[in-house]
Every structure is written in C-alpha cells, then in structure tokens.
Amino acid sequence: MKTTIRKGANSLPINEILAGDCIEVMNALPEESVDLIFADPPYNLQLRGDLHRPDNSKVDAVDDAWDQFDSFKVYDNFTREWLKAARRILKPNGAIWVIGSYHNVFRLGAELQNQGYWILNDVVWRKSNPMPNFRGKRLTNAHETLIWASKNEAAKYTFNYEAMKALNEGIQMRSDWVLPICNGGERLKDDNGDKAHPTQKPESLLHRVIVGTTNPGDVILDPFFGTGTTGAVAKMLGREFIGIEREEKYRKVAEKRIASVRKFDKDALRVSTSKRAEPRVPFGQLVERGMLRPGEELVSMNGRSTAKVRADGTLVSNDVKGSIHQVGAHLEGAPSCNGWTYWTFKRDGKHVPIDVLRQQIRAEMQ
Ligand SMILES: C[S@@+](CC[C@H](N)C(=O)[O-])C[C@H]1O[C@@H](n2cnc3c(N)ncnc32)[C@H](O)[C@@H]1O
C-alpha cells in the first residue's frame, strides 16, 4: 500500500493502490498521464431508516459513512472537484466512464458537460437479477447507468468497435447491457462471511468497458477503487491500473484480490481491430507488384460487368475510367461502391475477389 507518490517524469504509481482522498491524490499525479478513468463514486443514497425484506431480515443497503453527504450542494461540490482533478490527469485523447444510479447519475452527467467532457454514450446496465422492491411502492430498480465521455469533443478516444461487435456475436454492440450483479463466488466476503463491500461491481461489466475502450498497456485509473474490480480486470487484460481508496479495509481486500489474479495469455489479449484501422493498400500496389497485370480483365462479383486494369492502377470499362470504386459505382448506377469487394480476377478458372490480394499485402506488413 503506497501513500506517497513518486514525482518526476513517468513516475506514475503503476499497479498500486493509493491511500487517501481521491481529489488530493489525483492532484498530486502528473498531468495528462492516464488513458482511461473508471469511476464508481458514492451514490449519495440518502437512506432514511432501515429497509427490511418481507421475512423481516434487514437489507444490507449502502449506509456507510463514505456515502453520506449533507446536501445535494455538498455532493455537487465534491463531484465538481473530483471530475476536475480527473480531467487534468487524463491524456488529451483520454476518456472517462462514470457509473451511477438515479440518485446521482444526472448530477454526474451535468457536471461532466459543464467541465467540457464530451459525452459519447450513456449505457444502461440492465441487471438480470436485481433486488426486488420490497415495499412494493415503486418499480423494481433494475439498472444502473454508465456515462462514457471523452476528455473533450476533439479527443481521438479509443473504441474497439470490431472487438465489441465480436463480443456480441457479430452484431453491433448496443448501449443496453444485460449482465448479472456481482454474486456467488465472485462476491468477496470478510472474515465473518459478510459482504466485504456493499457495492462490488461485476467483473463482466469492467471486462466490456476495458476491452471496448482501452488497448493492452494502457493506464486505467479508478479513484473509488473499493474492492479493486477495475484493477483485477485490468490486470487480467494486460492493462496497467492505479487505484485510489480512502478506506483501509477495502484497500486490504483489493490488494489480496489483485495479487491472486493471473494475467491472460498475451495472444489472447489481442482483439479484433477496426477495418478502418488496418493499413491502407492502394490498388496500384497490386499492379506494381505484378499481382495483377496491366490489361488483365476484372469481372464484377455479380458477373454483369467487366473492366481492364491499367498500368497506373485505374480501371477502364468502355468509355469509363477511374478508380476501382468509381468505375464500379458508375457501372452499377450507385452513388458509391467498394471496389475491393466488387471486383474479381480469374485464377485457375475461378473468380477470386481482389480483396484477397490486399489481405496478402497486409499480412506481409504485420
Ligand atoms: C461505490 S464504491 C466503489 C466500488 C468498486 N467499484 C468495487 O467494485 O468494489 C465507492 C468507493 O469509494 C470510496 N470513496 C468514497 N469517497 C472517496 C474519496 N473521496 N476518495 C477515495 N475513495 C473514496 C469508498 O470508500 C468506496 O469504497
């Protein structure tokens, strides 16, 4: 457990749990030094009296001192200060996730916008196994909201679009996530067998956040570390973490938990990348390298059109000349066309998409 922060260039307290108030600790960290912040701040639940189940057992609600604020104003001041401290330490292309319930999430969202953060999405974490509404006076509170925001509007934040799609079985990931609350073996217990922390978040939630919005080696800071869910998942996924937690009992739980986490195999950490992020290969390169010869005929995938390859990497079809995309679009009467998937060439009597040649060149580049 470290309470002091080493100063100087690149002296980030990587993979450490820092003791103290997160505002003070973040203010002592170097400016623009972390890639992502995941923050699960106090909810400010304002509980009035104990809550009981129908069998009269007491509900283990969040009534801890760390969740008590005298008024909305005090909570808002606290929110302003920690979000300001967080923004200072974010790299220019950094981003933040905050999670909250209806008690606090609107206040968090407003302050994020006030400070110049740029909201990218709000995600509804729909709990597949929520706690019932025991009094039967309101709807079952079955979700929490996460807000994902970049440091500012211009930030080139990380989003592993293809990886998120792959996680969702090939369908674009939506902003409503159905995941169970933290239960069973994952729920950490104290020496008496009671919950070690009232608001331990599920690792599945952090897995999705970290895979989707960071890269291996990135530094993820969690200013309200609790049991260290962020640190545990970051370590598994080959990311660096910095945790800040005020309460010693939670720091101890988190430290023990993270020490027992094993990093996943390096190859398993590579995720599907965005097609847009792949290196650009001009069609002309295929001609220069002799993979296609000037004068060679290309046939459209639907078999309706043909064009000839020219020495400068353009195509000609009757009186139309241009790039593989332009000629394809013209022949189809379409506003645009992806020439890479439209055109085929003939080898050994078979029509092969020209994209196969592009993939060959890309594979050589890796
Ligand atoms: C909602 S819980 C976070 C739980 C955590 N996400 C997990 O999965 O275990 C908030 C935590 O922030 C800590 N905390 C509250 N105010 C703090 C402050 N000003 N500085 C540092 N930690 C604080 C509390 O002790 C509590 O453990």
Automatic annotation (TrEMBL):
It comes from the Bacteria. GO terms for molecular function: DNA binding; N-methyltransferase activity; site-specific DNA-methyltransferase (adenine-specific) activity. Keywords: DNA replication, DNA-binding, Methyltransferase, S-adenosyl-L-methionine, Transferase. Residues 34-256 form the DNA methylase N-4/N-6 domain. Its EC number is 2.1.1.-. The keyword Membrane does not apply. Pfam families: N6_N4_Mtase, RAMA. The keyword Cell membrane does not apply. One of its GO terms (biological process) is DNA replication. One of its GO terms (cellular component) is cytoplasm. It catalyses: a 2'-deoxyadenosine in DNA + S-adenosyl-L-methionine = an N(6)-methyl-2'-deoxyadenosine in DNA + S-adenosyl-L-homocysteine + H(+). It is an enzyme of class 2 (transferase). Residues 266-365 form the RAMA domain. PANTHER family: RNA METHYLASE-RELATED (PTHR13370), TRNA (GUANINE(10)-N2)-METHYLTRANSFERASE HOMOLOG (PTHR13370:SF3). Belongs to the N(4)/N(6)-methyltransferase family. This is Methyltransferase. It comes from Celeribacter halophilus.
